[in-house]
Amino acid sequence: MRAILFHEAICPEGTSWDQRLGEVTDEAILAEDVGFYGYAQSEQHFAKGEAIISAPEIGLAYIAGRTKTIKLRIASVNFLPYNHPVRVVEQAAMFDLISGGRFELGGARSNNPYTLEAFGIDPAQTRQYRDEFLRMIGKGFTQEWFEHESPFYSFPRRRISPWVHTRRPPPVHISTTSLESHEQAGAAGCGAMSGLSILGWDYVQNCLAAYAKGSARAEPVVGSITSRFATFSVGVSCDEDSRTARELTRENTLTFIKVILGWMSKLGASAEGYEYMQRIEEIRDKAEDLDFLIDSAPYIMAGDPDEIIAKARRLYELGVDDVIWRVDGMGHKNNKRTIEMLGKHVIPVLESWPDRRPAQRYGDMCR
């Protein structure tokens, strides 16, 4: 099982935005030093101090120059018109080359109604945009000369630059929340980054089943097939004392839970294709009960090393391949402490559990 450190660059009270971005770099370098497989940043807009990384391709490029081995992933670029698919292909090519093949692409429809409203995106069309992105990215990753015609994009014949003939497509992963999106990610030959495990262990199991169903008919839509299932966890905090770990993450995690309750309730009630998000209401009456949220689901990981290992083991036994851990919002010193604890006590155990899926397949699918 692989562990990936995830940042949105939360700024606790008293932390300036430029200070936090510098701290994020230090924490990413530390993650490489202590044994994390990967490091990821998300694309977020208009989130005030809760998440300030709006251009992860810039942040990750800087970190690529400060690290040597850790895999680097956008998790996730918004597959929406304000990010043109060909620009995403160009950015991926640049990033993969300058990082020595360490780049991984994550993409999402976006579940932030404030972003969709600001950019004038109809929520009912986000799934169509995502699917169009995947098709265009697959062409751009495998065809040096690119052209495309569809109701969404009309693009004349142009040469993708930079281009290296021996370069293989980077792995592509999709942020998934509904059962349907898990199945669609598998069918498109993409990894799944499952983000709604707050609904409980049964929901994770159902998502795994949906992903397996899609993977059984996987096609290399993005130029290759990546067969990895990861779960996002927020509020990740590790300390020798379990109660201390929980208290360190309490404030920022409960604030985040309120934010996603607002997002998902709004989209679920008003936007076509997001109706399943109304299930978030199932935890509304427990939204301020951190102990319940931690104990009832893998969405929040806070405790001593043995507790975190036990949760990760339960995920692994269900069929999860990777864990994406958001260590953020506790202050730089406490974030680093958790990263160090995970690297020393948890990650070596996780890495001793063998992979059950191939990371990526190529062959005839890359033309």
Write up this protein.
The chain has helices spanning 17-34, 56-66, 85-98, 113-118, 126-142, 179-187, 201-215, 242-270, 290-296, 305-318, 332-351, and strands spanning 2-7, 38-41, 71-78, 103-108, 145-149, 154-159, 172-176, 191-194, 229-238, 300-303, 322-326. It is an alpha/beta fold. It has one domain (2-365): Alpha-Beta Barrel (TIM Barrel), CATH 3.20.20.30. The strands form two sheets. An eight-stranded parallel beta barrel has the order 1-2-3-4-7-8-9-11, surrounded by eight helices. The longest helix is centred in the C-terminal third of the chain and has 29 residues, at 242-270. The radius of gyration is 19 Å and the shape is globular.
| Class by SSE composition | alpha/beta
In the CATH hierarchy, the architecture is Alpha-Beta Barrel
CATH-defined fold name: TIM Barrel
CATH class: Alpha Beta
- Counting structural domains, the number is 1
If helices are DSSP runs of H or I spanning 4 or more residues, what is the number of helices? 11
User: What separation lies between the terminal Cα atoms?
Assistant: 31 Å
Strand content: 15-25%
Mean pLDDT level: 93
Q: What spatial form do the alpha-carbon principal axes imply? A: globular
Radius of gyration: 19 Å
Strand neighbour order, sheet with most strands:
1-2-3-4-7-8-9-11
- Main β-sheet, in a few words? 8 strands, parallel, barrel
What is the number of strand segments?
Answer: 11
* Fraction of residues in H or I helices: 40-55%
Q: Name the helix and strand elements from N-terminus to C-terminus, one letter apiece.
A: EHEHEHEHHEEEHEHEHHEHEH
The CATH H-level homologous superfamily: Luciferase-like domain
Low-pLDDT parts are 363-367
